[in-house]
Write the structure tokens for this entry.
Amino acid sequence: MQLPSVTPDSEAVRGRRRSDDDPADTGGRKKRRGGAGRFLRDIVIIFLVALLISFLIKTFLVRSFYIPSESMQNTLQVNDRIIVNELVPRVTPIKRGDVVVFKDPGGWLGSTDQVSSTTGNPVIDGFQWALTQVGLGTQDSDDHLIKRVIGLPGDKVACCNDFGQTTVNGVPLDEKAYTKLPAGVTKESKDDFSVTVPADSLWVEGDNRYNSADSRLQTGTPSKGFVPESDVVGRAFVITWPVSRWTWLDDYQSVFRGTDKSTQ
């Protein structure tokens, strides 16, 4: 008895029809669609959790800024990127010598310290804005300043003694390790001054002493040159960009040894 011939094409057609009518195969397709949906849902959840974690890190731990001016040379160069520890001063107190980022106390920002970080491109600026909201961008850097803390609350800060040095509570500071002065100049400040830092405030100066609109030049502003500690965002502790300048920032505690009033 001769069996009917079956071509591969006809078998394939019949096979597809059986598959189309097979309830088990329909369930498999539904499972595959359900798996894809769960995968997309998981991706969205991971993304939202990452944003939340980034926001919390920005709010409580660390934050990125860029340097818009020459006022902290040679410690910091224009367009350096830095990371700021926001636990200072919330958890850890500020020390003399710390490099701190702070909000403008009122009237400080001017042409020598402010450079806009926006590009004019709405797509790029929008992306930068989103990164800034979660602490990864630096678009709000032009609303802040960065200086070195010289005087803490209650300190008497003065300049200059007979050797051109700044003194804190009568103790002369040897600041040559971090200050930048014009060639042939040894006096740490062009103009003499003597102040006592009020409670809950700081006296700050740029390392580029003859090119920094710091506390010395802000005595006519509402804060009278002092920075309220509540305006401090945090302490800068590392340069992250460019890679060639990656380094930890020194607070030069040895420079301020003996300045505590309790030790005098």
